[in-house]
Amino acid sequence: ALKKVSAAQHQDHDALLNNTIHSLADEVEAKIQVIAATHNITHEKVEKLLGGHKYYQSSHSMQLANAIIPHKVQEVNEGCICGEKLTLQQIRGLVKADPIYQDMTQDEKDELLRALTEYQALKNMSVHATNSAVAHNAQLTLEHIFKILDGLALHTGIYVCLFATCGHIYDSSQPFWYGTNNVMDFWEDVMDLEPDEIIHKLEQWAC
């Protein structure tokens, strides 16, 4: 009986949510038309500008994790010949066990992030010069996919979730997650996992 009540409550909640989303979509569409007319630009340009800062999740802790690894790599592998260098997995183990990285001051964190930023800049000017172009292309492609999925969810009620991250510790693109409707609640309510926690683990695994 409890399961039936719970299912009914979820159906009512989903119906209310869908109605709210439909109402919001209508309001947004009307405002987009007003902005386009006021500024004499196309409807598509307004949507592109509006979507340019959506969906992307940037975490200070994630950036810091990517800064710590190369710092440790330099510490343990500098001066070593190829066969003596520790693997990335071994270095991650050292980082996890090193108390220095567990209780860092804000100045120490900022210094690591600054060093990583400088390293990325050097890479972008040399062998990774096309990295920003690749990241930009990925962003535009995924934004197009998100808009298609949002429209599909609006008209069919489909549930979709997506997690994406870079595959290299020096990649400048940020990890992010995306979900239609309230699908991200599944991870919290059923799997007992926060989306931010999932993307953080995915980033660490991929790098």
Topology as a string of helices (H) and strands (E): HHHHHHEEHH
User: In percent terms, what proportion of residues is strand?
Assistant: under 5%
Number of strands: 2
Ranges with pLDDT <50 over ≥5 residues? 52-62, 125-129
The total count of helices amounts to: 8
Distance between the termini: 47 Å
Sheet with the most strands? Answer: 2 strands, antiparallel
What value does the average pLDDT take? Answer: 77
- Summing up helix and strand content along with how strands pair, one would put the structural category as mainly alpha
Radius of gyration: 22 Å
Amount of helix:
55-70%
Walk across the major sheet and give the strand order: 1-2
Shape: elongated
Please describe what this structure looks like:
The chain is mostly helical and 207 residues long. Helix content is 67%, strand content 4%. It contains eight helices and two strands; from the N terminus they run H-H-H-H-H-H-E-E-H-H. The chain has helices spanning 2-39, 43-51, 60-77, 88-97, 106-124, 131-156, 184-189, 195-206, and strands spanning 161-164, 176-179. Strands 1-2 form a two-stranded antiparallel ribbon. Helix 3 (60-77) packs across helix 5. Residues 52-62 and 125-129 have low confidence and may be disordered.
